[in-house]
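Supplementary Methods S3. Complex input for the adenosine monophosphate-bound model.
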Amino acid sequence: MKRIFSGIQPTHTMTLGNYLGAVRNWADLQKDFECLYCVVDLHALTIPQDPEILRRNTRELTAALLAAGIDPEGSILFAQSHVPGHSELAWLFGCLTPMGWLSRMTQFKDKAGKHRDQAMSGLFTYPVLMAADILVYRATHVPVGEDQKQHLELTREIAGSFNHRYGVEYFPLVEPQIFGAATRVMSLRDGTKKMSKSDSSDFSRINMTDDADLIAQKFRKAKTDPEPLPSAIEGLADRPEARNLVNIYAALARTTPEAVLATYGGKTFSTFKAALTDVAVAALSPVADEMNRLLADPAEIDALLRRGAERAGAMAAVTVGEVRDLMGLLRV
Ligand code: AMP
Ligand code: TRP
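Predicted complex, serialized as structure tokens:
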């Protein structure tokens, strides 16, 4: 049986990159699989957070996930810090994860920058907590954007190392699920950088809460080149900004980049950007409206998270108990 787990950090509001690269796929997968979806607030602490804003973002992101179609009855939706098994398993895995494996992680290198010695150790061990998130439910499949692929390879290595060390087939080797036309949505200002919640320019990204005017303005100002759109995919090879906008259109309209170029090949960017704005507004505004409706009742969101944590916590406790036994911790 496939069991799906994925997570998203409550830093800033959800972006179009999160939505197209991950969250919309999460909603689609619920039809066929048992799914756990987690607001990873402990991961958010790897960069400095204002306590009040972190609490607010946790509720907001939960509302955004519900609005994007996550069903809190069929699936399990909860916050990471509400289930202590994640942190406990992360400690146990930390004792099986060489520093060398963590030093290879490109996300750490990017985020820590030049002053690695001053980076917090939590930022360095972040992928160990991520492995624990997934494996504490013994999940088999993890839908994410392409940027998380390396962390999932590490999760497999940790699972393999545990199984080998204790002579068991306890943890599954997880499969990343990376699909859709927008597995890596790029910045609207620089087609070689991923669209990110943490970019200092708000014009680099579309937020799920942006209204129609702001979406139009952001696409209008998005960086492009002077040529019209090509008619075939090969024509996008050296044009990262054009490729990004075509991929975004394809993902939003649930079609392929080829089909988009069949319609817009030869057209100018101003024509294409107007059409792109229309599909974006049509896809995003119902999500934003529903999110605002849900946020009017924060107590309901909290109750939902509490219920999700009870269900997830019961599952996590079983794994942690078995892992403790396998690793030789005394039961009294
Ligand atoms: P994060 O916001 O870093 O917690 O990411 C949550 C999910 O969104 C992960 O599955 C990421 O891979 C995905 N994601 C984040 N940014 C992008 C992007 N620019 N394009 C595609 N997927 C993304
Ligand atoms: N590291 C992921 C990100 O930044 C978020 C995350 C934490 C996650 N734990 C996870 C994703 C477990 C998938 C599974 O996008």
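The radius of gyration is 21 Å. The first helix runs from residue 16 to 29.
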